[in-house]
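hiii so um. not sure if this is the right channel but i have a protein structure encoded as tokens and i wanna go backwards to a sequence. like what aa goes where. can anyone help
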């Protein structure tokens, strides 16, 4: 196992800079997930760690050794790709053993390593089959097994679950968690799926347009998003962001469309300031009209069994401030309807509308 250090790394294709000065320290045995929308540069960064892409500027080290100019085969890493990349004419055993055979290991040692990995991933009954005889989840486990047998210092995963159906993704996430508990190898994992990031990561690197928007533990990123991008990307539905001006007495926020949101605590120190107020849909609660802080008009409702997601708007113009609320025991809710809602002060987030950066709530009113 080994720590990975990424220091002020840049990547440029011609005049297009796709990685813009990312720095991160990954501890020995840590599971770090790089998450972000398509095109944000997360796979490019992973490929730079693997040595499959050159580094335009900056430095990457593995186990204390700078690897900028080191060939991929000499970096002591193993990579699992999105498309499995199995040899179709070889059996599961041969696929898992091939890399060890190329390295010149004795047959007995290869057999031991393959059997051990197969037992870990519950592949033992499948060792004689060809890839075409396997399901998608089984093929992905074979790809993981091929990486595990090498006993690398670092695992690199590039969206390994994106080709699987929803049920298999849940199953494979559990298997990945279990595998890392048994074999805590340093892991860098790329995904665009925030659920994978939240459930698998020790820490997350949230990327946007080649930059690191926030690095932190999943719960920290969820409860204290550093920017409006993170607030809108992490969470489903995404965080509600309501633009407006704090009233002179600090008790309300008024939008440009004239809608008003009462605040659960007075923000006298921010009176008169333009802000973005953030509230997650699951932290909005239906209430009596007298206790309401905001009253959106609900346009449509998605009933999901255990809960319902209500979508609406504040004010009279549907093109104005959109709002989502995730409500429990709300099967009787129908649209259109005005829905009185409240939220607690600790669930209120403030952002600067110009920079998108988080504003810390004043210590006192």
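sure thing!! here u go:
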């Amino acid at each position: 196992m080994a720590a990975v250090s990424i220091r002020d790394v840049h990547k440029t294709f011609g005049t297009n800079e796709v990685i813009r000065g990312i720095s991160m320290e990954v501890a020995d045995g840590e599971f770090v997930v790089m998450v972000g929308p398509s095109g944000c540069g997360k796979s490019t960064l992973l490929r730079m760690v693997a040595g499959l892409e050159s580094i335009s500027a900056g430095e990457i080290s593995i186990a204390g050794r700078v690897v900028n100019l080191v060939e991929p085969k000499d970096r002591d890493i193993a990579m699992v790709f999105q498309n499995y990349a199995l040899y179709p004419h070889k059996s599961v055993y041969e696929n898992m053993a091939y890399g060890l055979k190329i390295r010149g290991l004795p047959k007995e040692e290869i057999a031991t390593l393959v059997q051990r990995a197969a037992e870990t991933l519950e592949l033992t009954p499948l060792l004689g089959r060809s890839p075409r005889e396997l399901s998608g989840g089984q093929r992905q486990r074979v790809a993981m097994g091929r990486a595990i047998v090498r006993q690398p210092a670092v695992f690199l995963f590039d969206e390994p679950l994106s080709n699987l159906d929803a049920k298999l993704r849940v199953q494979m996430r559990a298997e990945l968690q279990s595998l890392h508990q048994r074999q805590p190898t340093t892991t860098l994992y790329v995904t665009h799926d925030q659920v994978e990031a939240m459930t698998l990561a020790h820490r997350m690197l949230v990327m946007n347009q080649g930059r690191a928007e926030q690095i932190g533990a999943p719960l920290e990123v969820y409860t204290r998003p550093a920017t409006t991008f993170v607030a809108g990307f992490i969470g489903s539905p995404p965080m509600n962001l309501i633009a407006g001006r704090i009233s002179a007495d600090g008790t309300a926020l008024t939008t440009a469309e004239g809608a008003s949101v009462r605040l659960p605590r007075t923000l006298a120190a921010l009176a008169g300031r333009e802000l973005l107020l953030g509230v997650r849909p699951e932290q909005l609660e239906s209430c009596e009209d007298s206790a309401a802080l905001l009253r959106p008009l609900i346009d449509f409702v998605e009933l999901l069994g255990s809960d319902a997601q209500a979508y609406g708007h504040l004010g009279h113009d549907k093109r104005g401030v959109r709002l989502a609320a995730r409500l429990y025991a709300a099967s009787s809710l129908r649209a259109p309807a005005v829905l009185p809602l409240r939220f607690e002060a600790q669930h209120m987030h403030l952002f600067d509308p110009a920079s998108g950066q988080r504003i810390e709530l004043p210590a006192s009113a």
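oh and The chain has a mean pLDDT of 90.
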